[in-house]
């Protein structure tokens, strides 16, 4: 393929290289951007799409749920471009391929789209819920296709009660890296932790359906986004040095997902598959353990290198260096990089949202108010309008920081909040000479429990979750 017709790839690395002799970690933010291809871009890669639809007995009440599922499937099927491989799976206590009647997957065209819509219109509710069987059938169906882009949308309204213990985790282990999956919960009687587990492993998004009528548009957007992906896989490749090793790596934008366990390690080289990409931007938080006592002072020292590679293994950008410079000057080592500080703030925000929900579930309104008050403050400082909107469905918050719980809140509003706790804002690259945001101005706070540095305005350590003492020095 001519170079002008290939997507563009960029990798930006942000860090504060200065490290105190007592320091033991180096935090780095990696910004990865994939741009559009040239005017003579090739045909999109072969793509396969599956709709995994909960048809358990609970979907029958109220009847609007199963009808919303049928309508959403028809909308998604109608948006499939010609040539996409696709199918519909009925999910109950087992999985059954509804369309096509038997493998392999159908090829989208005028006839097959209409046949699929007719089959979906006959979906009825009855049976249990065993999500592991749905995912395993999806894996088997995808394995029989030549598709480079493989994507599923899973819809459920119930808890995974028909699965035997450990079955979902085992299925996710088999499916990891085989396809991507977005998941949605409809109604008020499902467990957001099930969807969070699925999408964390299968690199998708999980959310609650607030209004049944919104489901069709959501399904259509998810399918269209998957069809817009043009890079089947992009890998972060990290090489460490004898005095450094990986502590963790997380995707932090557009959502936060811990990817450490999904890394593939060979010697000092680590490779992290990041899944399929369209024209988009993502950020990653890389943390290295550093044996500072073994390093000389007052010179740049290489801790590792980072690059990007396509699924063929070929690098697509130049290697970026992660460096450290040991210094006794606290004015240099104590101020976190702006990107790193904001990522830390996002992590603290997510922790406060989830802790508030856990307190709310167990009936501890006072603790929920404290945690969600912290979340409101952090979301405001970070400009995270989406989290503020989701919090606003459960609480009213005053300018003085007070929190009042709303009446008539439905469980789905809480599910939407807890699943949305991983939604982050782009930290952005500061322009030279730009004013430092208020939330990162001044000296950072350092946790006395774990030594982690946080925003000057932080009340809770985003690393270990312990509260900073009121009036404690930064």
Describe this structure in words.
This protein is α+β, with helices and mostly antiparallel strands and 474 residues long. It has 3 domains: 118 residues, Immunoglobulin-like (Sandwich); 181 residues, 3-Layer(aba) Sandwich (Rossmann fold); 116 residues, Up-down Bundle (Four Helix Bundle (Hemerythrin (Met), subunit A)), CATH 1.20.120.1690. 28% of the residues lie in helices and 26% in strands. The chain is built from 11 helices and 22 strands. A hairpin with a 3-residue loop joins strand 5 and strand 6. The longest helix is centred in the last third of the chain and has 24 residues. The protein starts with 8 loop residues before the first strand and ends in a 20-residue tail after the last strand.
Throw out a few tags for this protein.
single chain, 474 residues, alpha+beta, Immunoglobulin-like, Rossmann fold, Four Helix Bundle (Hemerythrin (Met), subunit A), 3 domains, 7-stranded mixed sheet, 6-stranded mixed sheet, 11 helices, 22 strands
